[in-house]
Amino acid sequence: MSFIARELDRVSSALRENPQRNDYDRLYAAQQALAWAADPNGFASPMAMIVGIQEGSEDCLGYPDPPQF
Predict the structure, then answer these.
(1) Which of 1, 23, 38, 40 could bridge to 19 as Cys pair (CB 3.0-4.6 Å)?
(2) Regarding predicted confidence, which is higher, 65 or 57?
(3) Is residue 43 within 8 Å of 35, Cβ to Cβ?
(4) Which parts of the chain fold into alpha helices (H)?
(5) How far apart are alpha carbons 23 and 12 in whole angstroms?
(6) Average pLDDT for residues 19-39, to the nearest whole number?
């Protein structure tokens, strides 16, 4: 398993463990950037995610609302 894949797995696990709202946004951004780095054709680039361009991101996880506390 590559370094990127290991880190992506760690970030994905942290997202599933109900992170705090501030952490959720950062973890989600990290997940998308790592997924794009591992497979640029299957995920939106970090810049596309920031500016809201969704084309080519059909394999990305949806951006669900973070848990409300």
Answers:
(1) 23
(2) 65
(3) yes
(4) 3-16, 21-38, 46-51
(5) 12
(6) 88
